[in-house]
Amino acid sequence: MPTSVSAKKFGTFLGVFLPSILTVLGLIMYLRFGWVVGNLGLGLTIALVLASNMITFITGLSASAIATNIKVGVGGVYYLVSRSLGLETGGAIGIAFYISRTLSITFYCFGLAESILLFWPAEEWGPAPAYAIPGLTAIIIIVITFMAGKSAEMVLKLQVPMLILVTLSILSLIAGVLMGDIQAPEWGPSYRTEAGGFWVIFAVFFPGVTGFLAGIALSGDLKEPGVSIPRGTISSVLTGTAIYLLIPVLLSITTLVTYDQLADPDFGIQSWTQAALFGGMFVYPAAWGAILSSAIGSVLSGPRVLQSLSMDGLAPKFLSRLSRTGQPTIATWITGGIALAAVALGELNTVAKFVTVLFLTLYVVINLVAALEKLVAEPSYRPRIDIPWYLSMSGAIGALFVMYLISPLALLLAVSLEMAAYVYFRKKALEQQWGDVHAGFWMKVARFALLRMSRKTISPRNWRPLILVFVKDIEERIELVKLAAAFGQNRGILTISKLLFTADHLSLKRRKEIRQDMQNSLQRHGLEAFCEVNVVQSLNTGILNVSKGHGLSGLKTNTVMFGWSGDRAGNINQLKIIRDLGLVHKNILLVKFNTQENWKEKQHHRIDIWWGGRENNGDLMLILAYMLKLNREWENARIHIRAVVETPEEQELLAKGIEESLAEARIPALVHILLKEGESFPAILKRESAGADIAFLGLMATAEGEEEKHVEKLERMASVARIVVFMKNNSMKETLPILLQAQ
User: Fold this and answer.
1) What band does 452 get if pLDDT is binned at 50, 70 and 90?
2) Alpha-carbon span 195 to 706, nearest angstrom
3) pLDDT, position 631
């Protein structure tokens, strides 16, 4: 079957208003309105109708606002939600909508079969056989599925005579009541049949006003969905509200039906036939037409949701194939097959609550989408129908309240199903080609936070490690990236930068792919960081320029981290870069890994800090050691502060000073002040830190021309522990002491 065909497109009346209004004017109107009036009286019934339709009206406005802001495609509510909240949330809602619409086909066809078999001539033919209702239900499902699969136009035009029948039934009720005797209505509630109170009756009645989504479901079949959806939806809601206000007035003022009869739940449709002109001549066919129309609306909408899910990659591709007449035929057959299989469930009243609640989750989400879009205020959100966010939010809260009234258990099951679908789609790491409200929301939060930060002086106690790491390949330097993430420990910000050179034309074309590969590598290792691909002319000037301007407002990068180069020339060049970075006040971390085990997946026991005094990196070492211990893998590690002095007097004085600093910082550590006694510092370092998991050492400033000599010194010290970190505090001389006191 072709996947691209010219399908018949519909206007507002046939495509939106007709299926919507016929779904609204359905079973509840014929079977339950009398029961509502008989128990609540006219006053509370009108209040109930207004409250119910207010939630529906607000939801209709929210849906219209979303629909007038985007170019609407196939899928109805699923399409609106997925283009605002993303594929994962949209997919979860789409699955819920599809299930509710598919099972609704079975419910409506069951109801139609039962009402038809009321006229079974039992006196002549005997009692109807047990298979009569399931058999007739199956036949109805097969017929309407076949019709919907062949032509949506034919099915929609079939609803025109059904609307005429419904209109005639309402006119016959008006004529019958006005031609009979009139009485004053009962305004107050009587609860004659122990109906359970106002909210129980409200929960039973509410599904009768939820049909307006039937028109939105045909969004992909409309000539101008941005015009037809708001016009058809709002007009169907207003028309339904007017009729729903008229019916209880008629039933409450006529003397042809008593209030006791109205309150009898078994009296049902007789409240109409007994009061209407010509009895049931128009009422029964109209009720059957309304039920059948609701079933037709479901068999048209369900497959189109499945089609849209398929087009977005959330369902198998063959489900989006269209027939020569533009119908999603395969999706329609599958939907009809599921509805047919559901006939085997037999008693569907229990499942009906679940389906209704599942359907109402759409109300909640539609209103939330409209509210979030308004709050986030993306420049691209310019709907022709603009409504306040709090109005949409009130609609979401109202729908959630009704869901709870209908069945708390069904609410729990519906939410669980949608959460499971969301998690499944989330794990598939779906990629979409359009922006959604998530990105806009976080952009607004980020903007708000940055503006507030720009108006405040950042206190030293608010210092956090904002680390920039330059790597050629994340997988080759994964130990370095993991250590940088551990220093931040969810309190700082880590950025991974890969440099591309202007001469590398092939890589420049793949910048987006390279960045995505970096993100994928981080995800495989369970890490979170920002990834950047920066284009530079040379390594040294590139690192300097990227580091100088990196960050925003109060989130400027304060620390640059390098991995130890693999050769002497590389190490010499690193010292040149580090000298230049010191001039722009960036802290420096130069890290060498001497073991290749996956240190992040094991417990560590010892952190060595070689103290050169607060002004010589000591505070920076201490705060990073503290941040490291916040990680699960390092929480049992003991911090050892070590220093080398010439005399016992210096030994005592330095030990006392460090102990006082530790007391202020409230960071437990063991202090070891060693006497040099003629031994070289590298020899003492090698002896004392041989068993350390990580050792922090100061990094001296290197004068121009002395890089090679300094590299030789660093090489002698760089292999003393499993990990060695050389660091230079270039910006936090005053901040870190205050930070340590504030911990």
Assistant:
1) low
2) 93
3) 86
Q: What is the DSSP string of 47-59?
A: HHHHHHHHHHHHH
Residue 265: pLDDT band (50, 70, 90) is confident
Whether the pLDDT of residue 671 is over 80: the answer is yes
Phi-psi region of 326 (alpha: psi -120 to 50; beta: other; left: phi over 0): left
On the CB side of 566, CA atoms within 13 Å amount to: 3
Is residue 116 helix, strand or coil? helix
Does residue 73 carry a pLDDT above 80?
Answer: no
DSSP letters, 452-516, are HHHTSPPPGGG---EEEEE-S-TTTTHHHHHHHHHHHTTTSEEEEEEEEETT-HHHHHTHHHHHH
Report the distance separating Cα 297 and Cα 101, nearest Å.
9
Tell me if 568 is assigned to some domain. yes
Rounded Cα distance, 14 and 21, in Å: 11
Q: Could you report the per-residue pLDDT of 327-355, keeping only the tens digit for each?
A: 788 888 999 999 888 888 765 565 677 77
Q: 290 and 236: one domain?
A: yes
> pTM of the entire structure?
0.64
- 385 shares its domain with 468: no
* 258, part of any domain: yes
Task: Tell me the mean pLDDT in the region 666-676.
Answer: 87
Q: Tokens standing for 158? A: 């079939």
67, 94, 7, 4: which is closest to 418 by C-alpha?
94
Phi and psi at 497, nearest 5°, equal -115, 130
Mean pLDDT of 92-112: 84
Per the structure, the count of domains in the chain is 2
Do residues 422 and 464 both lie within one domain? no
Q: Counting every residue, how long is the chain?
A: 743
> For residue 464, which of 531, 558, 585 has the smallest C-alpha distance?
558
Among 694, 696, 497, smallest CA distance to 600 is for: 694
Q: Is the same domain home to 634 and 714?
A: yes
Sign for the pseudo-dihedral over CA of 477, 479, 481, 483: negative
In this model, does residue 189 exceed pLDDT 80?
Answer: yes
**Structural domain that includes position 525:** 457-742
Q: How far apart are the C-alpha atoms of 241 and 229, rounded to whole Å?
A: 18
Q: Considering only CA atoms, which of 232, 268, 203 is closest in space to residue 23?
A: 232
Q: What is the CATH number of the domain that holds 356?
A: 1.20.1740.10
Whole-number Å distance between alpha carbons of 740 and 732: 12
d(CA 524, CA 39): 62
Strand order in the sheet with 587-593: 530-536, 493-501, 466-470, 559-563, 587-593, 723-728, 694-698, 606-610, 638-645, 670-675
Gap between the Cα atoms of 311 and 94, Å rounded: 13
- pLDDT tens per residue across span 128-181: 787 788 888 899 999 988 888 777 777 778 888 889 999 999 999 999 999 989
Residue 445 reports pLDDT greater than 60: yes
From CA 418, how far away is CA 100, in angstroms rounded? Answer: 12
Dist CA 374 CA 589 (whole Å): 45
Q: 3-state class of 326 per DSSP? A: coil
